[in-house]
Amino acid sequence: MDELLEQFLIEGRELVAQAHGDLALLARDPARSEVLSSLFRTVHTLKGSVALFDMGPAEHLLHTAETRLERERGGRTAMGRDDLETLVAVIDQLDRWIDEMEHGGALPADAEARAATLAESLQDDEGEDGERPSETESKTATSETADAPDWLGAMLADSRFRDLDGAATAFRYIPDSECFFRGEDPLALVAGVPDLLAIDVVRSAETPEIADIEPFKCVLGILGVSKGTLKAVQGAFRMVPDQVSFAQIARPSGSALTEALAETLASTSADRATMLRVPADKLDTLAAEVRELAVAMHGLEGVTRQAQRVDRALADELRRIQSGLARAVGTLAAMVADVRLVPLQPVLRRLPRLARELASALDKNVAFELSGDGIEVDKQIAEGLFEPLLHLVRNAIDHGIEAPQIRLRSGKPAQGRVALELARRGDRLVATLVDDGAGIDPATIRKAAVAKGIIAAETAENLGERQVLRLIFAPGFSTSEVVTDVSGRGVGMDAVQRAVERLQGTIDIESEPGQGTRLTIQLPLNAIVTRLLTVSVAGERYGLRMDQIVETLRLDATEIQTLGQGNACIIRDRTVPVVALAALLGHDETVSPVARLVVTDAGGEPMALRVDALGDRLDAPVRERSGLLSALPAVGGTTVHSDGTVLLVLDLPELLA
Amino acid sequence: MSVVVDGPAIRLVGHCPVEDAEPLLVALQEDAGRVVHLGELEGAHFAVVQILLLCCPALEGFPKDLFLKNLVLPILGASASEQINADP
Amino acid sequence: MTDTRLLVVDDSALMRKLLVEIFSGHGFEVALARSGTEALAMLGTFLPDVVTLDVHMPDMDGLACLDRIMVEHPCPVVMVSALTAEGADETLEALSLGAVDFIAKPSGPISLEIDRIAEALVEKVRMAAGARIPRSRRLTERVRARISRVADQPRARSAGKKQRLAGDPLTGVAAVLVGVSTGGPPALDALLQPLPADFPWPIVIAQHMPASFTGALARRLDRQCALSVREVSAATSLEPGTAYIGRGDADLIMSRRFGDVVALSAPARADLPWHPSADRLVDSACEVIGAEALVGVLMTGMGTDGARAMARMRQQGGHVIAQDAETAVVWGMPGALVAMDGADLVLPLESIAGQLCDWART
């Protein structure tokens, strides 16, 4: 799906630019209907694109903007300067969100709140019939915090709820009248409330006469009281948060008060008192600067070596200062790495909900358990982990867990279990996904792999069971429908493996036919990213490690002169040999009027490498060279570019040695 | 069919899904005096419970399911709560 | 087997890319057009078996493009539309202009949705590629239809007289039940338009469709037909001279209210694949009214919905008509019914109304 996201980033930004252009024209002449139509279409298309990704708040916001523009188009309301400014703010916000999608693959945590605020200003001057997509969020938010809502007093005065021992949390659930048609059963949700003490019904609409009863229209609400905590009770209504209000029941008794206090303290003060919110991009800049510092430190080494030849005492003094600096830089780098650690929780927050939605969509009965999500890992790892985990959970529910009847028939409980456990082992993060579903039959995999032409029949026979299972990670294997149906597993397993490898991790699979499957992902806790500069040579892209680069520059080609058998140029009064990287790599040299040079340190002397073009700088985990590549001395490793292509990372000292 | 109409009696049997609200309503509209027997009831969709709440028929027996018996039955009308109080 | 040649017409590069991803590898050879103009230029060279066409495009919108495709290079077209109430009218218009079917514009977080929707999309478009372009939509008639949308249609009486097929009028009929799916809206147009306002039997229709579309469909048919056409959700007593279309994404059932026969929507039953389910409608009607007082009509559509229940209804004394293979866009449901020997008559679309009138002796 990476390609699709990339396409979205391009198209989304084009649409943003288009919208801005239209808005600028409208600012000059608000009455131009063809510009208004164009803006409407742009916003509509943008909404459609956004809907393809997990960008709910953006979709809501654009929907509101679209509705607003439609009214405008219909000539029903006048668009003033304020409206235009709000629309500009909406498009700006979208632009920032597109950036966030590019960097983190997800909207920031405050997206909902921002969308709600902007949507509200868009609707300010609308009639009552204006849609308010933000309403559900704000309603939930207030209902959680309200100390004693109006309904609570009346409810507790009722004999049914009076003097219940241990009553802690009350809820008032007014289901939407159409909820039966959406497949909801309010009573089943209420039955899921932990430690329920009593319930009652409340008539939410005019109670119909027996002749007028619509059997599938929900007209009653449910009130209830539980001994459970607010959080526990809210948990039972996760699917319908906008239809339920909650209240904690005040209790004079000491123990309950302490409990309540403890809960409040645990949930608020801990993160409020000591936490400082820092925008993620500042942190990235900080990390980048620390790396630059390390590069500069590296330069100092060369100077120290030079000084050695001139003045030993000066060199010793320099070396002493340098080692002190190096220690400080090392500590700083470690601290920055530590600051970049984020808990996995916010990233994996959506997983239980998605698992539930998926299970219900597939008519499966699945308990999804998530544990260990409090572990902190590098931001990059946290962000990169969600997609592959979602894929795996999805596969486990879709293909692993059997339908309830089948489970019962094979002597298992009707409810399947999918458990994701995250744990820290040394400096590795280990994510284990276990299901008690149908498991994978190696014989089936073997047959399918041969049928798909992934391996030869005799090779297949010689593979052990574990190796056979690993075949599901082979490119082209799991995309096959046949395999999905037959093996019961496998949508995009190669994509999962690629994503894990991109994070420098490994993935392993064990399965017992009939008993279930266990997938183990191991990842570094700290991303070991290397700062790379991409360069183009003879039509190929390569990565060069920034810490091996002293500087880059552009020169007029005429400034490169022939010197003896080679070429050289003058950089700051020094003669620096120039070597074409193409020639070193065995490609043909290309000639251009501008020479792009990368200066590196070759055994204490500067050396300039001529390349065709200088590309982006990027932070990427570099994989140790392995397999075929280990035969190539100049290749320091490989990294997977965000577009999925593999970039060879050159090791300059080795190349020039 | 989990709604069994048997002359003056209606028996709710097993798990009553959402669609059972319709036959239950028809049976009670035809004869509001019908007694609804809950003794074989193992589970009910809220739509079915809602019909009982809106039509207030006489009830007999206790559902097998504990949630229905202990928490839902008490709200299905005074007669039912009296019965539940008498329940040992 | 050669690949199905699919032309994807969409102004959004993102959507084109997504559709290519969905269709390639499923036996499709995909070509892309960024606009209606580009699509028209490609029709003659690429010779697609089927076209997917975005409803909303900037220079030439989907409807205009569809109109020209049907005139210049008639081939099956599947509209790609947002499942919204606003999209409904345009989509229905497209179906009446000759589009075979429509698919919902993919939306929702891709990683979760894609595999789920992909299968349905591929299935629909593959089916459309093999579909017959509705004969009644061929050039001359379509041009006439465009000149005057409310122009006099051939009245059922004359058509019926010419093609009188099965004899004696039926007595004691309480309702006509119609099950229809792919290709349904224009087929319903052809079925209901010729019926007179005083047609004596209520007509209850299960048309597979999303909830946001059935209201628009009912309003559209109501404007075009002498009969009154309504969407049904809450329990509604059945009147003669009226057609009732069940709300989408729910099932339509028959029941009684104090002796009166009513139709009402019920939550979609998860074990049935299509909604409103024709099988469930027919089963409930047989129970409430009795098969012998029912006439069933099973029309164009993918799948088998309605076939089982209507075949049983016929065994119990009901009268059943299946649309024939030549006029059905997809002869799935009626085909299944015929295979079960469940139809008294297999008629071309344009003769069904006449037959109903003959049976009703109007």
* Count of separate DSSP helical elements of chain C: 13
How widely separated are the two ends of chain B? Answer: 32 Å
User: In CATH's first tier, which class of the largest domain in chain C applies?
Assistant: Alpha Beta
Mean pLDDT score of chain C:
81
Helix content of chain B: 40-55%
Which fold does the CATH topology of the largest domain in chain C refer to? Answer: Rossmann fold
CATH superfamily of chain B: STAS domain
Task: Please explain how this structure is put together.
The complex is a heterotrimer of chains A (657), B (88) and C (362). Chain A has 657 residues and is α+β, with helices and mostly antiparallel strands. Chain A has five domains: 2-133, Up-down Bundle (Four Helix Bundle (Hemerythrin (Met), subunit A)), CATH 1.20.120.160; 139-273, no CATH class; 280-340; 355-524, Heat Shock Protein 90 (2-Layer Sandwich); 529-656, Beta Barrel (OB fold (Dihydrolipoamide Acetyltransferase, E2P)), CATH 2.40.50. Helices cover 46% and strands 23% of the residues of chain A. Chain A is built from 24 helices and 23 strands. A six-stranded mixed β-sheet of chain A has the order 20-12-13-23-22-21. In chain A, strands 14-18-19-17-16-15 form a six-stranded mixed β-sheet. In chain A, a hairpin with a 2-residue loop joins β18 (594-602) and β19 (605-611). The radius of gyration of chain A is 31 Å and the shape is globular. Chain A starts with a helix and ends with a helix. Chain B has one domain (3-78): Transcription Regulator spoIIAA (2-Layer Sandwich). Chain B has four helices and six strands; from the N terminus they run βββαββαβαα. Chain B has helices spanning 21-30, 46-55, 66-72, 78-86, and strands spanning 3-6, 9-12, 14-16, 35-37, 41-44, 58-60. In chain B, β1 and β2 (9-12) form a beta hairpin. The longest helix of chain B is centred in the N-terminal third of the chain and has 10 residues, at 21-30. Chain B is globular, with a radius of gyration of 12 Å. In chain B, 43% of the residues are buried. Chain C is α/β, with parallel strands linked by helices. Chain C has two domains: 4-137, Rossmann fold (3-Layer(aba) Sandwich), CATH 3.40.50.2300; 159-360, Rossmann fold. Chain C is built from 13 helices and 15 strands. Residues 146-165 of chain C have low confidence and may be disordered. Chains in contact: A-B, A-C, B-C. At the B-C interface, α1 of B face β11 and β12 of C.
